[in-house]
Metallophosphoesterase
Amino acid sequence: MSRKRLVMLFFGLGLAILLITMVTKAHVVTVKHYEVAIEELPPAFDGLRILHVTDLHSKKYGDKQKGLAELLDKEEYDLVAVTGDIVDMRNRSLEPATKFIELLGDKPVFFVPGNHEVKTGIEFRTKLDELEVTRLENRALKFQYGGQHIWLVGVNDPHEDRDKLANALSEVIDGSPRVLLAHSPTIFEQAVKQEIDLVLVGHTHGGQIRLPFLGVLFISGQGLFPRYVYGEYMEGKTTMIVNSGIGETVFNIRLKTNPEIVIVTLRPIS
């Protein structure tokens, strides 16, 4: 075999291994745990666990989302935050998203829309209402637990410039901690100015494709070399967690980032 053919063979083998790795990564869901310290957290909320899920994009994990069901059965949580794009505008079937929500059982579920829900009409919103999911679209509500409360604040999709954080915060009537649900991390600067305690977002898919040495080159809404890609960001009293999500757009492939669900445990500042 000539040197040229040998090089081509190794190149093709390497490419095949890379593609297999990228496809495999997209189907291995991890669970990421965070602890977030919050000022003046009511004692009843010390240890409260928020399950944060985002960006399913109508993806299936087995019949009736069996793969996700098996994963969630191993975890403990007290409420669920869903931050958009659990449906996909390229796949109009609502079944993957609704089957996923049905897995959450009797836990309270709070939802804010992403850019894909904006394009799927009112049918999905109607389904959420049937499943008794609370939609937080530019509004806030008092979440009570153990006789005390915090505020859950939700905005419509910042990626589509539909967020009205000031309107939502106008419904907050005391100084109890505030948890903000949004689809895109571009809400962070506003949240810092408003001294929001915790922000839960998705949209980025953790970059989906993270190149060696270069990292993530582009994210819609942030452009080239994005600032907010994945993980925990802190500024002032505000903590933001960017969840890589459990689905992908266009192609179900990932590189150097896994699909994930996130569990955030609230703690007081000692």
